[in-house]
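Bench log. Compound arrived from synthesis this morning; before running ITC I wanted a structural hypothesis for how uridine-5'-diphosphate sits in the protein. Inputs:
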Amino acid sequence: MVQKIVFSIIAPIYNEVGNLPELYRRVKETLEKTGEAWELLMVDDGSTDGSTDEIRNLAVQDDHVKPVIFARNFGHQIAVTAGLDYAKGQAVVIIDSDLQDPPEVILDMISKWKEGNEVVYAQRSEREGETWFKLLTASIFYRLILRITDVKIPMDTGDFRLLDRKVVDVMNGMRERHRFLRGMSSWVGFKQTGVSYKRAVRFSGVTKYPFKKMLKFASDAITSFSYFPLQMAMYLGFFSAGISIIAIPVVIILRIVGSQSFLGQASTLIAVLFLGGVQLISLGILGEYIGRLYDEAKGRPLYIVREAPSKDK
Ligand code: UDP
Ligand code: MG
């Protein structure tokens, strides 16, 4: 009889060949301590550095390892989504494959889960070896998200978290394309708690999140959970209309009393440039949302797999 899988670990992988054997070793060592059946879903997000073969090798050696191989690079959040689709466990853990998230923390998550928590997120108490730029942008990002979105996403958490089967089933039904998983897993509700951990340095290789991907990630996060950017056009409109309502009588009175202030082109030019700028920015923001609507309307699959385990439970 096949044992029912209790724990699924999802590792999204994009060119992490140097990290995979160590990731496998540490995940295995940790999960064996639980005494339960487990699986490690290695989702290859279009790697080009030999990670794909390494995943296949590991799967041949140990059938706890389940490869999900994408047809191309679809991005980190989509890779994790595929993992969630294929995971069979009663509790599912998402972990980075560069060992910045120490697999040993999974045991703490599991004990919180056994106490009845349905989402256990890992909260970074310290981050080792990150650039000041990464720390600064991350800190601005988390504070901005907290202010302008409707979901309360706990500070300094990443995707490293445990999700109960109930939560995974709900999230698997949310097929939006521009995904911000940590927002989605807060949005669903349920009983949530955190464990704190020290974020380690990357085991090997370099970050797969260049500035461009970080920007896309941030704009997906904001547009998925907030209309604030759309409303900003209205606030700015009210603001400039308000100024003109005050300014018109002031200028008329100044003219009547013979003052020479506000004469000339400079003030006109500034007003035109300011409003032109505001209007273009507002159009751009509208474009962002419309583009996302268009993506949703096309209804393409979120990802394409070349190889994947069966989905039967
Ligand atoms: N990743 C991925 N697809 C991508 C980019 C990243 O699957 O297009 C994976 C990557 O292999 C790693 C995780 O997502 O396991 C987090 O990426 P990374 O460590 O580069 O991000 P950082 O920790 O620097 O924010
Ligand atoms: Mg990393």
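What the model suggests: The CA atoms of residues 6 and 89 lie 4 Å apart. The longest strand covers residues 119-127.
ITC booked for Thursday regardless.
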